[in-house]
Amino acid sequence: MRASLIQIAVNPDESVNSRRERVSSLVRAEAGADLVVLPELWPTGAFAYELFAQEAESLDGPTCEAMAKVAADAAVWLHAGSVVEHTADGTLYNTALVFSPEGELAATYRKIHRFGFDKGEAVLMGAGEQPVTVAHPQSTLGVTTCYDLRFPELYRTLVDRGAETLIVSAGWPERRRAHWTLLAQARAVENQCFVLAVGTAGTHAGVPQAGHSIAVDPWGEVLAEAGADEEVLRVEFDPSRVAATREQFPALKDRMLGLEAPSARR
């Protein structure tokens, strides 16, 4: 399976419309990949709170339309990062978008864990409620966003629902980059999954970004890692290694706590 993680630089001097056009070109250049993944809130920047209401859009808005088109143009499965979604009742959500190679919106995921404590995303946005998996033809994907990475119970739920490759789309700050790498490897090891974690580069809203997008195998080994600047990180991996790892070292069978009731599993 070939995945392309596009680590986008979010420059506040670049308009959102210009960035959409540039990102569309970057995705189109990855034709032939089995999966392309973009970072969290790349149209606005994850810390540009003052732009959230201004740039919010519905699920048929300009970013969604552009990403649907480029997924079809490139004939790729596209995790298009996330956008600020506004709903009919005025609530904003940090919503991830996944498109099929036909350009159809295959899944959406509203971020469950909002960052900011008593400010920013935590007070400006509503919380999602449902974990989301996507039936990619080669590997079931578990969809997560940034701050979610700190909450292992979400990933256990995704594993219970069949996830084999965990996606983390993020706008992670540089000052906590060590946590980014550590947690990506931990989520891979404890769940015996591949982890594809893609962040942003540059500085937006005064917050330097970590970059260092990373791909990790089910044993926690780093398959590929980006640097600090804008970059396309390409990685090839064998999804069948998930089942092989779980058979070779069947730790998940020894779980005692937190198991979902059979009726809740999908």
Automatic annotation (TrEMBL):
The keyword Hydrolase applies. PROSITE patterns: CN_HYDROLASE, UPF0012. CDD domains: nitrilase_5. It comes from the Bacteria. Keywords: Hydrolase. Signal peptide: none annotated. One of its GO terms (molecular function) is hydrolase activity. Residues 1-239 form the CN hydrolase domain. The keyword Lyase does not apply. Belongs to the carbon-nitrogen hydrolase superfamily. NIT1/NIT2 family. This is Carbon-nitrogen family hydrolase. It comes from Streptomyces polyasparticus.
